[in-house]
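Today's session is about reading a structure prediction critically. Students often jump straight to the picture, but the first step is always the sequence itself: look for stretches that repeat, for charged clusters, for runs of hydrophobic residues. Only then move on to the predicted structure, which in these notes is written as discrete structure tokens rather than atom positions. Here is the chain we will use throughout the hour.
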Amino acid sequence: MQTGAVGRAAIAPPPAPPRRIVGAFHAAFVQPSDAMPLDAFDRQILDLYQRDTRVPSEQIGARVGLSAAAVQRRLKRLREAGVIQAETAQLDCTRLGLGITAIVQVDLIDESARATRAFRETVGQRGEVQQCYGVAGSVDYVLIVIVPDLAAYEAFCEACLLHDPNVRSFTTQIVLDAHQRGAPLAIPALDR
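Below is the predicted structure for this chain, in token form.
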């Protein structure tokens, strides 16, 4: 009898490797029920407004067929609902002396909610990090880092990545040509 037990133990499959799942992976996908219902006017207004927030409501209204007051009410509703998150200026990095844009892929050791939150908080406090994406795949995060020069990028890596015990590895691509930066979103068409 014991030989059978030993035999079964010997042929038992090895334990499954730990699964690589980014903590917020499932939450990152917008479900259709999460999207705010937008009519054709909302979509036209957003398309125009995201291209230049300085365009007066009168001009937007004339383009979409609404009064300036109706455009203002819709913009207010879209702000309150979080569809419009901010109205900001797009700055020219080169003219500001920010000549290096780096795309940094980061692989973490511990992918628990606590550890990923700590990583996001660390990089979120750095002005060099313009964008931070939790991603699925062979790495856990993709950062867009903008700095004046390679020495500043090296200082960023030293401060944020090289000595973080939870960073397994990171790779960097330096952008040679920023052909398109901060383009307007392609707003999905209204389902018919």
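Discussion point for the tutorial: Residues 129 and 165 are 19 Å apart (CA to CA).
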